[in-house]
Specification:
By secondary structure, this protein is an alpha/beta fold. Helices cover 45% and strands 12% of the residues.
Length: 308
């Protein structure tokens, strides 16, 4: 109806773009969130033309013609969209609006950290990320690694997107803790890794199946270095009492130790410890921060944790 009533070529183009651009996103794989900028461009284009039409029709009597009525409909449509979206932004803040200005610094920081850990990568190197700051439905990390090392042969897998091979076949395995990447395969006197992918049932110390890939990676490290002894440290968020969180963190650390001993690691090489909610690494005031604080850390007992 909007298309048929639109007299302006620009408005007709904007309407067509607005309604046709979602088609490839909806029906052609991969249907990733980052692709929706095409659709939002259509809304922006449509809004710009409607605003221009409003400006042209501010003169008395201009609203009475057919074109003026179309402009009113377009303005009403945009106002409805703003009205529907506003509660979300009011609730989550403008940080939920992703753009180049927000993602640019974070992407650059990721690339710089990875290059500090591994300045050079050989062709066909295989990398696994146990945790990372990139959304699960985005491929930014793959692009960043390949572009920054200028090598399309690099293979990048993530726990967020099921890996294509067993974890012990990767050349590098990285975890992400306190906005910092860690090389899990170099777990030694100077390494302390938080593993957010070791997950449990809600308010319990029962390991979930999703934790198996990370547990097998830790298992492989311990079997490779038979002299290595580690502490398993459990942490919680601030929901609940001090005693409850302390007990829960200890129980979860003990569950990880039990899993490792059941898979052949000597009990005298493992120590379970719970810190409850006393060592947060993020703000407990929001959901994202609390998720980061619920973690299990694998550390060499000789490692001195700093800045926690």
């Amino acid at each position: 109806m909007l298309f048929r009533s639109a007299k302006s070529r620009g408005l007709r183009f904007a309407v067509l773009f607005l309604f046709l651009s979602p088609i490839p996103v909806a029906f052609i794989a991969p249907r990733e969130a980052a692709q929706y900028y095409v659709c939002w461009f259509g809304w922006s284009l449509y809004g710009a033309i409607v605003c221009a039409s409003v400006a042209r029709h501010l003169t008395p009597g201009a609203w009475r013609d057919h074109h003026g009525i179309t402009t009113i409909r377009g303005a009403a449509l945009l106002a409805t969209l703003v009205f529907v979206c506003y509660p979300r932004y009011k609730r989550e803040g403008w940080d939920s609006v992703l753009g180049v200005s927000l993602l640019g610094p974070e992407n650059r920081d990721c690339v710089e950290q990875i290059h500090r850990l591994v300045p050079h990568l050989a062709s066909n190197t295989r990398i696994l990320f146990l945790n990372d700051p990139v959304r699960a439905d985005w491929y930014n990390l793959l692009f960043m690694v390949r572009l920054s090392y200028r090598d399309r042969s690099l293979e990048v897998d993530r726990i967020k997107q099921p890996p294509t091979a067993p974890e012990n076949t990767y050349d590098y395995v990285f975890d992400y803790r306190e906005r910092r990447f860690l090389d899990v395969k170099r777990l030694s006197a100077e390494c302390h890794a938080a593993t957010y992918s070791i997950t449990f049932d809600l308010n319990k110390a029962t390991l979930q199946v999703a934790a198996d890939p990370v547990l097998h990676q830790v298992l492989a490290l311990l079997k490779k270095d038979t002299s290595l002894k580690v502490e398993v440290l459990g942490h919680t968020d601030n929901l609940g009492t001090d005693d409850y969180n302390q007990t829960l963190s200890e129980s979860r650390a003990s569950a990880v130790v039990a899993w490792l001993t059941q898979h052949g690691i000597a009990a005298d090489r493992l120590t379970a410890k719970g810190d409850g909610k006393t060592r947060p690494v993020a703000d407990n005031a929001n959901v994202v921060g609390r998720a980061k604080n619920r973690r299990v850390e694998i550390a060499n007992p000789r490692y001195e944790l700093k800045g926690n």
